[in-house]
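From the thread on structure requests for the teaching lab: each student submitted one protein with a one-line request. Submission from student K.M.:

"Model DUF1349 domain-containing protein from Actinomadura logoneensis, tokens only."
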Amino acid sequence: MDQQHELDWNDAAWLNPPLATAVDGTDLLVTTRENTDFWRTTGYGFVRDDGHALLTALPADAAVEVTFLARFDTLYDQAGLMIRVDERRWIKAGVEWTDGLPHLGAVVTHDRSDWSLSPVPDWDDRLVTIRASRAGDAITVRARTEGHPWRMVRLAPLPPTASATAGPFCCSPQRAGLQVRFTRFALGPADKALHEDPGT
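Reply posted by the TA:
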């Protein structure tokens, strides 16, 4: 959206710094540490909170966008956008490698995590944008690839009084060394309506 303003990578702070970062022009290149993830209990029985997230304040009535490119090839490789209140309340949305394909998905955590996903084989090795819009008591998550319309990913609760942060995230639960190129990090006004296309 033309009302968004792009953030400098230095305008945010790392939760769990990655193995390596580098600035390439205006892009941020991130390399993950070994066996990193965000998850709480459900189905797997463990709690993980050591993935990498570069976070800045997400006030009420704001939207955040992250664009990235990654070559996933190992089970559970993932990258996208995180919205976080604390270690027990957070949302991550993006692309994750599972069953030999990239999947568009989201995990919403309120003490325990859930997981929803859908295969997007044509999104492999393409620029992906994830958008989270905060309005009222909800977060609306959308995603798209360059030149294609937005897809609705998730509508999830987030208390309007909660102090939240948001920004790009990535992790690699089965290895080290996933490399992600983040090309954009922007903040702007929340979407006007749940079913309205937020535009370009």
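TA comment: The first strand starts at residue 5 and ends at 6. The mean pLDDT is 95.
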